[in-house]
Amino acid sequence: EEQKEDNSSTECSELGIMDLKFTSSRKYISISVPSKSQTMSPHIKSVDDVVVLGMNLSKFNKPTQFFICVSGVFMFYLIYGYLQELIFSVEGFKPFGWYLTLVQFGFYSIFGLIELQLIQDKRRRIPGKTYMIIAFLTVGTMGLSNTSLGYLNYPTQVIFKCCKLIPVMIGGVFIQGKRYNIADVSAALCMSLGLIWFTLADSTVAPNFNLTGVVLISLALCADAVIGNVQEKAMKLHNGSNSEMVLYSYSIGFVYILFGLTCSSGLSPAVTFCSKHPLQTYGYAFLFSLTGYFGISFVLALIKIFGALLAVTVTTGRKAMTIVLSFLFFAKPFTFQYVWSGLLVVLGIFLNVYSKNMDKIGLPSLHGLWKKSVEERKTRTLSQTV
């Protein structure tokens, strides 16, 4: 009996030890420390505030955010486009597109620094290497675009830039692994075809076609197609603010352009010319840069909230409106082919908005509508046969 009691006590103690191990094992917490390459940004990831010009858009619902961003993009960029064409209308300024970009980048850096000082969190969240890439792409898209105006008229240059919707989609596939539905692809095709048709009408009515300008704006288009996806990926991964993105990308870009102009001996002639016409150059350039800075802040907010494709769709619609205003404020010949091509662009914008709101309000997809129509046609044919 004593041996049984000893055995039972031994079993109980073993069970107790096992139970203790079991219960204590449930208290263990596995903590993995990321490597230096995977270190998270020094901020709370759950905080996803979007602040534009001191206004926190996160307090509003999605439709209100979209309306505010689109209104800001249209208002500021329409003024931006008018001032850009006004600067290049100054006699003798056309060869100095890169210098205008240098001045523009300098103003953007100052504006970004001022805005960054007004917010509480002033830390740089996005890595410096990423900013060097973004700055290079920004220099390419804005510098080449400004320089192309020395060889192309403004509507033709804008039309070429509007065709970046397809490269943005291709960049989204390869850079972020995105997949687009048939509505997005149809929107890109409609907008691009409409804008190409617009270009053909412009070259017929008022031919001002130069191969150098086409090459420059095409290279700017390639850079522009990549930069939206790179910015979207960086801002979502590190939750960087708009003012931070503007400050670092444009200040690094300013150094790039200054180095390039110094090495190519293009800085001195531009400074000499602008000093003779300070109001038409530096005065307009300040307003041009200010409205562009405000506009880019709303574009970055669109990219962060709704993605690069919808942001490009909005900016493309804005460019179409800029072309209309260009015909109103600057004398140009007119043809009704502009109207039909503009309607095709509007159709593309409608298809893109339709695609973005299918899941939110329960709209059927284009593929579903096509499949349903085919099935109804088959049913109708079968009933007629019977």
TrEMBL record:
<dbReference type="GO" id="GO:0000139">
    <property type="term" value="C:Golgi membrane"/>
</dbReference>
<feature type="transmembrane region" description="Helical">
    <location>
        <begin position="247"/>
        <end position="270"/>
    </location>
</feature>
<feature type="transmembrane region" description="Helical">
    <location>
        <begin position="96"/>
        <end position="119"/>
    </location>
</feature>
<keyword id="KW-0812">Transmembrane</keyword>
<feature type="transmembrane region" description="Helical">
    <location>
        <begin position="337"/>
        <end position="354"/>
    </location>
</feature>
<comment type="similarity">
    <text>Belongs to the nucleotide-sugar transporter family. SLC35B subfamily.</text>
</comment>
<feature type="transmembrane region" description="Helical">
    <location>
        <begin position="131"/>
        <end position="152"/>
    </location>
</feature>
<protein>
    <recommendedName>
        <fullName>Adenosine 3'-phospho 5'-phosphosulfate transporter 2</fullName>
    </recommendedName>
</protein>
<dbReference type="GO" id="GO:0005789">
    <property type="term" value="C:endoplasmic reticulum membrane"/>
</dbReference>
<dbReference type="Pfam" id="PF08449">
    <property type="entry name" value="UAA"/>
</dbReference>
<keyword id="KW-1133">Transmembrane helix</keyword>
<feature type="transmembrane region" description="Helical">
    <location>
        <begin position="182"/>
        <end position="200"/>
    </location>
</feature>
<feature type="transmembrane region" description="Helical">
    <location>
        <begin position="206"/>
        <end position="227"/>
    </location>
</feature>
<keyword id="KW-0472">Membrane</keyword>
<feature type="transmembrane region" description="Helical">
    <location>
        <begin position="158"/>
        <end position="175"/>
    </location>
</feature>
<keyword id="KW-0813">Transport</keyword>
<dbReference type="InterPro" id="IPR013657">
    <property type="entry name" value="SCL35B1-4/HUT1"/>
</dbReference>
<feature type="transmembrane region" description="Helical">
    <location>
        <begin position="66"/>
        <end position="84"/>
    </location>
</feature>
<dbReference type="GO" id="GO:0046964">
    <property type="term" value="F:3'-phosphoadenosine 5'-phosphosulfate transmembrane transporter activity"/>
</dbReference>
